Batch of 4 targets.
Target 1
Amino acid sequence: MRMWFATVLLFAGVSVVVADGMPVDKPWSFQPLRELAAPEVKDQDWAQTRIDRFILAGIESAGLKPAPAADARTLLRRLQFDLVGLPPTSEEVSEFKTAYARNPEHATRAAIDRLLASPHYGERWARHWLDLARYTDKTASWLESTAAAWLYRDWVVDAFNQDLPYDEFVKRQLANDLIPGSDPKDNAALGFLGLSPTYWKELQLPPDIIKGTVADEWEEHVDALGKTFLGLTLGCARCHDHKTDPITMKDYYAIAGVFASVKFADRPTMSEELWAPVAKARGRVSGLQKQLADLKKKKAKDLKEQTARINKEIAAIKAATPHYNMATVNGVAEAALFVVKNPKKHGTVLDYKMGEARNLPLHQRGDPNKPGEVVPRGFIEAFAKPGAERRMFKQGSGRLELAKGIVEDAAPLAARVMVNRVWTHHFGKGLVGTPSELGRAGEAPTHPELLDDLAVRFVANGWSIKWLHREILLSATWRQASVAPESETKDPDNRHYARMTRRRLDVEAWRDSMLWASGGLEAAVGGASEDLEKATSRRRTIYGSIHRRDINKMLRLHDFPDPAAHAGKRARTTTPLQMLFTLNGPFMQRQSDALAERLLEAAGRLVEARVGVAYERLFQREPNEREASLAASFLKGRENDRKAWAEYAQALLGGNEFLYVD
C-alpha cells in the first residue's frame, strides 16, 4: 500500500520518500525505468499480451468490459492505414478473412510482417517524424537553397524501412558526420538540423539587434530538440530556470552553446578525401560567379567578353574536377558564431570561426546584450547519475556528445517519448496526452506502469520501432471493435481503452487513398519533391513539395502542421472550407472523374454491378440493400451518364466511410 501511494504521488509530481528511503524530487518522466510485474486480472482468456494485462486491470477496476474483437475486414483496413497509409485490395481482404478464420493470431502476425516489410511503411511513418522535424522543401527566397531537402526526407523513409535502432536514429540526425566510421551518405540525416528555421538578419543594423535575432534562432533549435527527443520544453529556461521541471538556465545555455558552434552548410555524401578537391573547386566557382554578379551590377563596358571568359573558366574547373556534381545535403558544419560590429562600415558581421566551438554566457532575462557567467557546453544536469557530474561536451561543438546524452543519460525519458509517440499514432491518443511535453506542465500518463513496461522492453529489444509496432498491434487492446455502447456511455473519452476509437484519416492518407481508388497513384518510392497543385501530380503526398511560407491549400485546409514549428500532434478540425473543398476542389473532381471512368469500364452496363465494383474498390465489401437502392435511385435514367457517375463517385470519396477508419 505504501509503495502504491508513493507511486501515485510520484506521477502527480509530488516529492515523496519511497520504501528504500531515497528521495524523489523529479517529475515522473525523469525517473529510472521500472521493470514491473504485469497485474493480475480476472478475465485471463482476454489478455493476449503484457499490454493487455495492464489495460484490462484498469478496465476491470472501472467496472467495464473490453469490446469484442473487430471483424477481419475492419482489422485489416486498420492495419493497412496504421502501417502504410493505404487501403487493402478486396483480394487482400478476402485472403485475410480466410486465414483469420483458421488462425486469428497467425493471420494477424503475418499481415503485420507483410506491411512492415513494405517500402510504403517507411513513407507512412517518415511523415509522422517530419512533423516533428519542421521539414520543408522550400523556404524564404533570401535563405540558402534547400533544393536537396528531399534527401533528408528519403533518409528518414529508409531509416524506418531498415528499422534503424532508435538510439542510432537520434545520433545520426544530430551528428552523423562526427560518428567514427559512419557512411557519408548518411549525412542526409543532418537535415534535422540543416533544415531548421532561420530568421532574417538585416546586417545594416547594429550588432545589438542582430544578437537578439541569432539568440532567437538558438532558442528555436534548443526547443525543437527538447520537444522532439526528450518531450521537454527546454526553451522555457532561456530567461529563467524552468518553472515546473528541473531544467536550469545553465542547462539551457550549456545546450545552446552547441548550436552557437555550428553553421548551416551543404555536406558531402562522399568521404572527406574525395570531397576536399570538390569543395575547393566549388569555392573557386563560387568566387567566379560572384565576379559575374558584380560585373553585371557595374554594367562593365566589356561585360560580354568578361562574362564569356569567366563562364569558360567555370566550365573548365567543373570538367577537371571528378565528382563535381556529387549531391550535397542540407546539414551543419563545425563553426563558432560571433556577432560583431562591421570594422569597415556601420552594421554587423556574422563572424564564423570554422572548426572552432564556443561556450555561451547566461543571457540575463534572455537578452544576449546582458551577458553573465559563461556556461561550458554540456548536458542537462538532472540526468546525471547520482553522485556524478553532468556530461560535459569537449569534442568540437558537442553534437555527438549531446546525442549520446539523450539516448544514454536520458535514455528512460527518450524511450518513454518514442513509445508514447508510436502508441499515439496507433490509438489516436497517447498514454500521455501531450506527446511533446512529458514534464510537469504536460498531462500525467493514464497508464504509467504500462508506459514504463513498454519503454523498458523497447530498449531491451534494441530500440527497435518495428518490435514496438508488433507488440502493440498484436494486443487484444488494439484489436477491439470501435462500437461498445457500455464503455461509450461510462467512459466517453475512452481513457480506459475499453474499445478502439474511430479515427478520421489525416490528409495524406485521404489524398493517397483517393489516388489509389481512382487508379492513378504512382507508387515509386523516393526522389525529388513535386508540386501537389499540378493536375499531373499522382505521387504519394509525402513527396509533395512543402513550402515553409506558403503551404499547399489542400494540406492547409485539412490540418497539416506549420512546417516552421515542431508539431507533436496535429489539430483535428471540421470546418466549412473542408466541406467546400469536398464539393468543389479541383483535386476531388479529378479523382471523381477518374473513378467514374473506372466504374463505367469495369462492369458492363448494369448499375448494380458498377456500384458493387465501387464498394469493393473503396470499402472492400458489398453494398447493403439500402446503399444499393440509394445508388439506383440517384442514377436512374442516367445509367451511362459520365457526369452522374462522377457525382456519385465524389459522394463516396467524400463520405464518412472513406474518411474514417474503425
Note: Residues 272-326 form one domain.
Target 2
Amino acid sequence: MNRKGQVTIFIIVAVVLISLVAGYFLLKDKLFVPEVPSNIEPVYIDFLTCLENEVLVGVDVLETQAGYIYLPDFEAGSEYMPFGSQLNFLGNPVPYWYYISGNNIQKEQVPSKNDMENDLEKFIEEKIRRCKFDSYYDEGFEISQGITKGEETSLIKTHNLVVDSKLGALYNSAKKIYSKEQEELFLEEYAVDILRLYAPVDGVELTCSPMVWSAEKIFDNLKEAIEENTLTLKSRNGDFKLKQEDEYFVLDLGVNENVRFINSRNWSNGFEVAPSEGSILISKPVGNQAGLGILGFCYVPYHFVYNVRYPVLVQISDEEEIFQFPMAVVLQGNNPREALDATASELSAPELCEYKNNFVKVSVYDSNLNPVEAEISYECFGSSCNIGKTSEGKLIEEFPQCVNGYIQTRAEGYEDFKYLFSTTEEGSVDIILNKIYSINLNLKLDGVNYNNDAIISFISDKSSRTIVYPQQKEIELSEGQYEVQVAIYKNSSLKLESTSSRQCIEIPQSGVGGLVGVTEEKCFEIEIPSQIISNVLIGGGKQNYYLLESELKNSNLVEIDADSLSTPTSIEELQNNYIIFENKNLDITFK
C-alpha cells in the first residue's frame, strides 16, 4: 500500500440494528481485541473511529434520501405529470416512493431493508479505504494489510463496531404510513376537501349574468391552501383531546414517532380544469333564453372538473433523527386516484408503450414550411406514449402498432395538433402547425369606444379563447374558422318579485297498480324568492369569421363593433334582449 494511509483489511462490520443499521459509537474500550499491542492500539482506535464516522454518514444519507444512498435512475416528469422520480428538497434529490411518470404510468420505488443494507455495505466499503493515517507514518508505523511498528506487528481480520440508531424503527413507521396512504388515500381525501373549499366545483347562483373566474387565480389559491393545510396535518401520539376544529387535522397513523407532512407551492405541481375558455371559466345563466320566460327568474348552474397533482414529503422523527420520503397526491376528475396495493415493486408499463416496433418519420413545419421543433407523442385508445422531440423539424423513431391512433404534436408558440395515423406499417407524415399570435383588442358599441364590462370569445372546433374586457385587452389567436361572440353587460338593480307556482307530475301508483303501469298525479308548491339582477345584457352579438394568418401577422389590433340593446326594466325585456342577441352581427376589422 502507498503512504496515503489507506488500509486494506477484511472488514466485518457488526452493526446492532433497531430493525436496521445505525447510529452512535458505544464503549470504545470494550471493542479492542487482546491481540492489539498497546503501542499499536492508537492506530486501531483511529481506524474504528473512522469506520464509525462513515457508518453514521451512511445512515444519515439513508434517512435523508428515503432509504437510498445510491439513487435510482432519474426519470423526468412532463407538463401533464410534473413529478419526475425525485423530489428536489432544499437542493437534495429525494426519490418518490409513489409517483406517476411523465407518460401517466403509476410507479413505486420503496426500498426494502435488504436494499438499504446493501447500500450501506457498498458505501462503507468505498469510504473506509479513504481513512487517513499520515501522522503515524512519521512515528515509524507501517500500515498495509496489518499494522507494524518496530518489531511488533498486528493483523486484525475481524472488526466489531457497535452503533445505535432509530433508523430501523423510523423506516418501519414510514412503511406503515405509506401503506395506509395507498390503502385509504387519506391525503387525496384531504385534497378533495381543499378543492371544494377553495375552488368553484359545482353549485347554483341566482343571477342573470354569466359567472366568470380566472383559472390562474383559482390555481394560486389552491397552491396556497394545499401548502397551509398539509403543514397542519399531524399524527395522534397518545391519548389527548383537541378542539373539534383541530381534530380534523389529526391522523391515527398507528406510529409513536412525530410525523410531519410538508408541501410547498414552489414544488412541481399540476392543475387542470374543464370546461374552460383558455384561462377563463365561464358559466352562463339559465332562464333568460327564449322559451324560458315561464321560470320568472334566472340562475347560473356551474360544474367544473379538476385534475390536481402535487407532492407531499413525509418526515418521521424521534429526537434528532429524521427519516423522510415523498409521495405524489393525485386527483382525477375531482376524485381521488385509484388505490394501490403497497408493494416495493415498480408497476409495469402498458403494453402499448412497451412494444415500439414500426419506424415512422414525422416532419413538422409552420405555414411557410420552415421546420419546427416539437414534442411528439402517440395516443391509442386512451393510452399515450412519449415518442421524442424533433431535430431540425424531423423525427424518425419507432412507434407502437395501433390502428387509427393519433400522432400528437406540441410546440411552443403553436397550436397543439392531433393527426390520425395508423402505425401498423412503417411510414411518414408531414404536419403543419398554426402559429399563435398575440394581438390587441378594442371594443366599440354603436361605433364608439367602449370600456365597460364585456365578455369576448373566439370559438373554434379546435380551441377557444375568451377574455374579460376591459381588464384584458390582449388575446392569442391562430389561423382558423371562429364564431366570435361579444356580450356586453351593465350594472342593474332590476328586481324580480317572489313567486309561487304549483307543478304536478305523474308518478307510478303505489301498490299493485304501480306494477302494471297505473299512475297518479302528485303536485308540488314551488316557491321562488325575490332577487336583484345586478347585471343585464345591453349589447353584443355573434359573427362567423375565418381568420387568416396574414391578418394576424400584419395586424397589431382587432377592432370589434357591436350594436347596443335597450336597457331592460323587466324580466320580459331581459329575455327579449337575449332573443335579439342571437341574431345580432358584429363588425370585425384587423388594423
Note: The chain is about 20% helix and 40% strand.
Target 3
Amino acid sequence: MPRKGSTPATTHAPQQSLKPIEELAAMLGLERDEIELYGRYKAKIDPGVLSRLQDRPKAKYIVVTAITPTPLGEGKTTTSIGLAQGMQHIGKKSIVALRQPSLGPVFGIKGGGSGGGRSQVVPMEEINLHLTGDIHAVSAAHNLLSAFLDASIFHGNPLKIDIHRIELRHVVDILDRSLRDIIQGLGGKTNGNPRQSGFDIAVASEVMAILALSKDIFDLRERLGKMVVAQDMDGQSVTAEQLRAAGAMTALLTEAIKPNLLQTMEGTPALIHCGPFANIAHGNSSVIADLIGIRSTDYLITEAGFGADMGFEKFCDIKCRISGLTPDVAVVVATVRALKMHSGRFKVVAGKPLDPGLTQENLQALEEGSTNLVAHIENVKQMGIPVVVAINAFPTDTKAEWDCIARIALQASAVAAVPSTHFVDGGAGATDLAEAVAAASEQPANFQFLYPLDISIKDKIDTIARRFYGASDVNYTEEAETKIKTYNRLGYSELPICMAKTHLSLSHDPKLKGRPTGFTLPVRDVRLSAGAGFIYPICGTMMTMPGLPSDPAGAHVDIDKNGKITGLY
C-alpha cells in the first residue's frame, strides 16, 4: 500500500531530544580528546584518530546512488539517512556519511540539503548555514591562491605566466550570475593587470575536490602544491607550489580537513564533510570521513552525487582508488514519478506543478521508463557489486506500481527491490530496506574498476562513454584534442577521468530520457585537476556559477517572533 500519513515537510527534531555530541562520539568509540566541540550538537573529529582505529574490523560499506533523476531529485539523501536509521531499528550499528550543503543551492532552487521529513541530519539550520565554516575555508584558500597568482604577474611576472592561459578563476559560495564573466584589474596600473576572468561557486573549486580526496594533512599539502593554475610562455605548467601559496592554503584548511560529527533525528551518528560538485568533480563526501566511519561501526552508508552514471562511477574509479575502500552493496534509489518521466511522456520542471499524469497509476509508462533503471542496475553490476533497489515511496504510488518496479529490477539481476517510507516514518519505514541491504552485504562482491589507469586518456573516455552511457562513438573538438596532447606531454595521461556532463540523462543531452543508445558523445573541452588527481572532459555546457531563480528559496528564509530560523525545510 502507499505510505501513510501526510508529508512532514517541516518536521525537524527539537533540540531537547538530541543527544549530546559526546554521547554520539562515545557510540563510535571515540575518546573525548579526539573530538572538538562546536556547541552541544556538533563536533569535529581529529583525523589522527585513524592511527588508533586501524586494528578495528571494517564496517560493511554501502554506497547509495540513483537512477537518472528528475530536476527535483529522487531522494538519495533522505534514503541514505533513512537507511542508516533503519539499520538501527533492526539492531545494526550504523553511520551515514554525506556531503555538506552549499549555500548556493540552499538559497537557490533546491533549499536545504540534509534530508527531509523524518529522515534528516540535525540541527538542520546549522548544517545548511555555514556549519563549522569548512566551505568558507575552501573559498579563502582558493582566493588566496588567486591573489598570489595576480601578485606574481603584477610584480614582474618572474614565472613568465601566459595571461592568456590562466586556468584559475575566483570562487564564492553564493549564486550570482553577474560574476560568471568579469574583467578584473581595471582602474589603473596599481590595481593589477586587466584580464578576463570570472567566479565559480565555491564547491566547484578544485580545492574542495582536493580536500574531499586527501587522506591526511600532509596529503592535502602535497595535492594543493600540485594545483595547476596556468601555463607559462613555454607551455609548461605553473603550480601553486611555484607560486609559494600551497603552505598558506594548507594552514587555512587545518580545521576544515576534520570531519563534522552530527546526528540524524533518531540519534544515528552522521558525518557531514566536504561537498565537491558532482559534474566537474567527483561528487562524494570525504575520504577521511569514510576512513573514520569504516572503523567505527558495523555499516557505513554514504551517498554518491546524481545518478549511477555520474557520482557512483566516480566514487568507484576515483574515490575508491584513493581510499583503498571497496563497496559491499550499492543501493539504487528510484521513484515511480521519475520512471514515468523516463517514458518520454511527461516533463518535470523545477518550480512548476507536476504533470497530473505522474501521480496517477500508469503501468505502461512506468514499464517504458524503467529502461533507465535497468541501465543503472547493469552499470553497477559491471563494477562487481550487489544491487538493492530502494523505491522511495510517495503517497500517490500504488502497490501495482511498486510490484512492477520490483519485477523489472529482479529481472535485471538486482538482489532486491524494496519500497521505503522513510520520509514519513523515519527508520521504521526503512526496516525492510535495511534488512535487504544487510542480507546483500553478506553476498560475495567482486569489485573492479571500470578501466585501468595505464590506458590512454581517450581510451578511458571511450570506455566510460560506451559501457556506462550507451554511446556508440565519441567526438572531440579541436580544442579538446589539443588539450589531450598537452596533458600527455606534461605527464598527466595516467590520471583517472571525471566526466562532466548533464545529470539529467544517461547521455550528454538532457532531453534524451530513458535509455538512449546510438548517440555520439561530444567532448568539447578537456581540463585538468592535477591536485585532485583527475582529468575532466566537458560534454556540453557546464554551469559552474548558477543563478538565482525568480523566486529563490532564500526569499522564504527568515526568523520568527522567537528568533528561530524558518524557511529552510
Note: Residues 109 and 551 are 8 Å apart (CA to CA).
Target 4
Amino acid sequence: MKIPVFPLLLLAAITVFAPSATPAEQRRPLTFEDMMKMKRLGDTAVSPDGKWLLYDATDVDLDKNTRTSHLWLQAIHGGEPRALFAWTQGEGGGRFSPDGSEILFTSSRDGGEQIWLASFDTSAGIVGEPHRLTSLSTEADGAIWSPTGRQIVFTSAVYPDCPAAPSPGADACNKNRDDDAANSKVKAKIFTHLLYRHWNAFTGDKHSHLFLINTDGSGLRDLNPGDTHDVPPFSLGGGGAYAISPDGRELAFEENLDAEPAISTNADIFTLDLTNGFARPVRVSTSLGGDFSPAYSSDGKWLAWRSQERPGYESDRFRLVVYNRAKKTIKEPLVNFDRWVDEFAWTSDSKRIYFVDGNSGEAELRVLAIDGMVGDNVSFDGEYSDLHPVGDVLYATRMTVRQPSEVVRLDFDRSKSTQGKVSQITHLNDALLAQLDLASLESFWFPAPDRVGKAKKLLVQGFLIRPPAFDEKKKYPVKFLIHGGPQGAWGDSWSYRWNAELFAANGYVVVMVNPRGSTGYGQAFVDGVNGDWGGKPFLDLMRGLDYAEQHYPFIDKDRECALGASYGGYMANWVEGHTGRFKCIVSHDGMFNPEAAYGSTEELWFNEWEFKGHPWDYYGKPDSKNPFRKWSPALSAKNFHTPMLVVHGQLDYRLDVSQGFDLFTTLQRLGVPSKMLYFPDEGHWVLKPQNSRLWYATVNGWVDEYLKQ
C-alpha cells in the first residue's frame, strides 16, 4: 500500500532559534583551527518527564592531539548547560533510567571502559556522586536500561572458549589470555578463516557478546555463552543493535550466523527470554538480506526493525517491517516506498512511528500510523538523527552544511498540516559560527540521456557552495568533490573529514554531484552503479560539472581540481585516465587495481557484489566482459597526465595501502607530477587531530599549487 503523502511542516513555517548574527561584512572564512574548536555532539538522551537533556560533546585539543568526550546536562525549557564530571579520561553514552531517578554512562576513569551509575533528582536537576557498576577486564560499552530499571544490558568482547559469566573464573580466564598475548615475545598470527582483519584492526580470537547485570552489581550474565560470532555484528553506525521489551522479559538483538562473515551481510533479528537462564535465542526475521535496529513498541505488542531483501548487498533498500509478537507475523507497512529508512522511533502511544529517510540531499521526517498505515511527510533542510519522542514532541539532532549537529525540538500541530515549529535546544557552537562567513548549499538538477526504472526522464542532482566574500563579477577556481560509497550522497550536512565549507574558505567554488549509485533517489538509482563503476556514474559526474560551468558564470572552467575518497578515490583514479579537463587530482584511499584489491580487502561481500563475482570467474574472457578489468583505472595508466596527490593510511584494511603505493609508483614511473601523503597510524579515515591538520594543509596546498594564479 503506497503511503499518502501530506505536508506536515513546510520550510517556510519552521522557526529555528539562532544567535544574533555578526554583520556580514565582519564575518571571516572558516579555518581548520575553527573547526577543531567546535564541540562535537555525540549521544543524546531526554529524561522521561521531558524536562532534561543529557548529551555528550567531544572537545578536540589540537596541541595534545586528543579528542575527549564529556557529559552535559541542560534544562530543555531554559537554562545553561553544565558539565557533569569533566573527568580527564572523559565520559559518554549517558542514559536516563526509565523512572528518571538515575543515569548511566561509560568512562575509562579507572582504566578500561566501564559502566557508571549516579542518582538524579529530576525536580532540581542534581546528579549524585557516581559509582562504578562494572569492573570487567574486557571492559563494558553500549549500555542500555531495561524498562524495569532494575537491569542493564551492555557489550563486552570475550574469548568464547573461556567460561561464561556467571561461571567462577570467567573474567580471570579472559584477563589471563589478554595478558599472555600482551606479554608474549611472539606476535605472529595464525589465520584459519577470513575477516581476520576489519577496517583498521586484526580481529583476533575475541568476540563481542551481550551481558546482563543488575543495577546493584549482582547477577552478571553472558547472554551469548560460547558464541563464536560477534553479537551484535560490526556496524559503522553503532547503537540500536539490541533492545529490551517493555516488561523487561525479552531481548531482541542482531546477529549474523553465516559461516563466512566476510561474504555475508545477512544479520538476523533474534529474541531471547531473559527470565530463563537456559533459554536459547529464537530467530524472528525471515529476510535473506540484512535485518537491523530492533525496537519494541511501548505497549509491547510490536517489534519493528530495518530489513533488506537481497543477501550480500549492503546497499539494498532498508525497509521498515513490523512484527506482531502475539501472532508472530511480519508485515511491511511502507509498500512501494522507494527510499531507505535510515532511523526510526516509536511514539509513546505505540500507534505511530517516526522515521527519517534521505531524499535529494535532505532529510524527510515521516510519521507512520500503525493502525491503518497512514503516512504523513515533512521535508526539512539538513540531516536528522537520534530521535526521541516525548508525547507529541519529538527531539532529534540536526545538522546542515553550515552547522554541526545540535539538538532540536519539533512541535507538530496536527490540526494544521502546514504549520509546525523547530526550536534549537543546544547552542554548542553558536558564538563561533556567528563569526564565520559560511555559504548555504545550492542545489541544481540536470538531465541524463537515459532513464532509470520507470522514470520517463532522469534528472541528476548537484550542489554548489560559494566562497566567502563572494563577488558575482569574479571568476573562481573549482574544487570538484566526489563522494564515497559508492552508495553515499552529498547533501545538506556537516563533516569534519571532508568539510565543504572549509574547502570553499580559501577562495574556491565547491561543486558536488550525486551520480548513479547515490542514495536518496530511489533504489534503481542506487543500483545503477553495480557492475558499472566507471560507466554511467562517470558520465553523470562530468555532465554535472558541464552544467555548473554553463549556468554559473563565476566558475573558471580552466581552473578545476577533482578530489575524492574511497569510491571517490577510485573515481579520481578513473578520471585520471579518462579526461584531461582537470588541472589536478586528489585520490584518497582509492581503488586502483580491482583484481589486486579483491585479495587484500576484508569485506569481500562488497567486491563480489559490485564486480559481479570473483576475479577467476572471468579468466579467459576479454576485458570488456570482466568487470574487474573493464573498470580498472590501472589499465588506463598510459593516459595518465594530470598532476595527482595520493593519500593512503597503513591501517586501511577496506582498501589496502598497497593500492595507494601501486598508484603512486605508476605515476612516478610515468613522469606524472605526483606526491603521496602516507599515514602509518590511520585507517580508511584520518581521525587524529594533528594528522587531520596535515591532511587539509597538504590537500589544499596541492590544489592551490595548480589552480591559484
Note: The two ends are 58 Å apart (CA to CA).
